[in-house]
Structure formats: C-alpha cells, structure tokens
Inverse folding.
C-alpha cells in the first residue's frame, strides 16, 4: 500500500486521534497493533500532525506551515502580476 492509499483509508479525525494517543504516552507499537496501522505510517502522521509550540504559547503543525507557504507563494505571484499590470498601465 502506498501513502496515497493511506490518506484515503484513514480520515483526518482518525489520524489525529492516533497522534493524540501517541502524545498521551501510548507507544507506537501498541497503536499499530491495536488499530491495524503500520508503525511507519503512524510515525509519518506524528511528523505531519504533531504541533510545534511557539514562544507566544500558540502552536502549529508542519501541515499548517506548508499551507502557509503555499498561500504565500500564491500571494507573491499575484503581486508580480499586479506589478506587471501597473507597469503596462503606467506606459499608457
């Protein structure tokens, strides 16, 4: 099974529950045998969904970070388009 199938087989709430159980002290080996998910897959979910704490007390996940990066790239592209459009209209 590839990682693409894993995303379809287990919904986000289930993956989050597994990560929370891990964070509360349940060993990955136990989670794997109890829920029928490979240890490798659980470690991938932990890496993807484990929150990172910030100095101001807030937290975010690596998935949140990737979403922010994607949004930033989209906004940068929009800004470039607007700059080019302004240059075109300034010449007229």
């Amino acid at each position: 099974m590839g990682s693409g199938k894993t995303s379809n087989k287990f919904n986000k709430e289930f993956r989050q529950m597994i990560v929370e159980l891990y964070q509360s002290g349940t060993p990955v080996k136990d989670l794997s045998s109890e829920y029928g998910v490979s240890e490798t897959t659980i470690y991938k979910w932990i890496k993807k969904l484990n929150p990172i704490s910030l100095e101001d007390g807030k937290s975010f996940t690596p998935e949140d970070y990737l979403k922010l990066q994607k949004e930033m790239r989209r906004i940068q592209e929009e800004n470039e388009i607007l700059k080019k459009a302004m240059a075109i209209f300034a010449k007229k």
